[in-house]
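thought: fold this chain, then report.
action: predict
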Amino acid sequence: MSALPARISAQLGLLLVVTSCGDRREEVSDSVRSSPAQVTPVSPVNLTNWDMDAGPLMVLSLADGESLGIVLPQATDSTFPAQESTAQSDLTVDLFGRSGKIASGVVVSPVTRTSGADECRSWPSGRTRPARPGWRVGFPAGRVTAVSLDSIDGMRSADSAALASAIVKTVSSLPSASDAEFRGLPFRVRSAHNFRTDSIAGVVADVVRSVNEEANPRLEHLFVISERPVNSTASYKVGFFSRTAGAEENSEITELLAVVLIGPARRPAIVVNVEYDEGGKLGLLQRTAPGQWRFRWRSAYTGC
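observation:
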């Protein structure tokens, strides 16, 4: 697990206790640090508006089901750790994906790694034991409850067409784009997922429209969260949307990772990865009132 410098720990309120081996604390070279480190939350000061009921950290799958990043929610762009060390103890997490909970009580072993100030930023790394395919994010065991998602791609053709039509109708009612090039162009549903909680039926969709100019193709993305009361036949109402536009090859994309219910209060939350440039940020969107969602938390930037 990553050992933050002492001055950063004081700012974050997340103490990373480093246990030295003899007098070697001052002999750390540019390669791997030899001091074991352990994450010990001590009266945390929540500087980033992270939902503390979700636990002191989150883990992120690195695509192979085994390698992962250990996300430190209290880290910011200015306090991001530049050095990483071997953790003294393993972590136990529950793993989630778009289909819901993938596994419970999985052991995560942090691994040793160092990074220089001029390298691309990445979260402290770890591995699951054993590898678990299909998961996207994980939280300390018992902290959150899974919500399963149904993809529009897996629906019957009639149902998928009806959902796509409803989504396009909904986004067409949103304020017009400031970029006049996109006005009047048709929307296309790039991805969409249904979910249900105790009280709401929701849809998370990525809707696009494009300017197909050979010399300068441009793409507009709308990431939209809509909801209606569970078991209702009323129209979906938009609770959150973000709109981005740019060159097709480097447009900003908000990727849906999982939907969960956080803590004893079972607060609905959507975990996303906002990709742009050569990196991005993770985010936690929470339902703050009926028909209202907002970004509660964004991570530090990782990437180049």
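thought: worth noting. The first strand starts at residue 14 and ends at 18.
final: tokens above.
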